[in-house]
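Study this one:
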Amino acid sequence: MRILAKLNGTDDKGAASGFNHIVGNDRQVIDLGSAAVQQAVNRIEVALCSCDLRYTSAMSSRRKALSSFLSLAVLLASSFTRAESAETDVDVELVLAVDASRSMEPFEQKIQRDGYIAAFRRKEVVDAIREGVNGRVAITYVEWSGSTMQRIIVPWTLVDSAESAERLATELSQPILPTLSRTSISGAIDFSSALFDNNGFKGLRKVIDISGDGANNNGRSVADARNEAVAKGITINGLPLMTRGDFYSDWAVADLDIYYSNCVIGGPGAFMIPVNSWDQFPEAVHRKLVLELAGDTPVMQKADRAPSEGAPIILAQNKPEYDCLSGERIWQKRMQDWEAR
């Protein structure tokens, strides 16, 4: 912008106007503050120094030079912009956000990880990927706990075949890290939402899959985080783990599946599959992935179906009267009881 202003003797606003006029004729939309334009301007500056263009030359020469250099800027910026915006088309960009809070015992963490490893090695999951419009998906695997405690276990990975699915499964086979404190579903949603930005993929759908064994008790409101993500066109599915019976069971909300349906999941086609025992987890993950990757809209099922029929699929509900701060209230009550001892 500095060089352009000097060339035509106007201020930055005048230079920007002239530049935008040429860009408009070329049917391009170039951000004057972008790195691409800055690179173009830098090249112009070098060219100016090389040809020793003098600002005291005749007005017609200056205009001719300005026109030439601005045309060069458009061409350079356009090529840089196309290179920067190159994205791989996929059917879905999927964030697998898995609970790694302290309420998850080491054996439970292993069941979770092994469930996803096994699922990506199943033919039905690979078939669901291959049968999409593009025949490929992008997946990243994240573990979360407190509002600022998230870690990427597997970065964005393109999966378009049995071989690439196997590579993803192999990456998930790495040692399991120690658990972290607190439970912030809102933090997991916010962190996962940001992962879609500039990830190199362009999906027909963007999905975050949240699995966890408790309600939000840290960070901002989970409903607010969910609503902001949905407003960006992101779908949030859930895998509530209602596997109580350990030390942390007193911290859990009653009917975690209802909590998830009202406070966590949302967006087009959102659903959840509750897990009542760990032996249900592998099959629940398999069913969930097939639905998410294939883009099928699940059929609403009652939560009281027989165990032999598999885990139910429950769609998002809208019950404004539900207390989505119940997790925070339980945490506060437990802290007060603890301090009173």
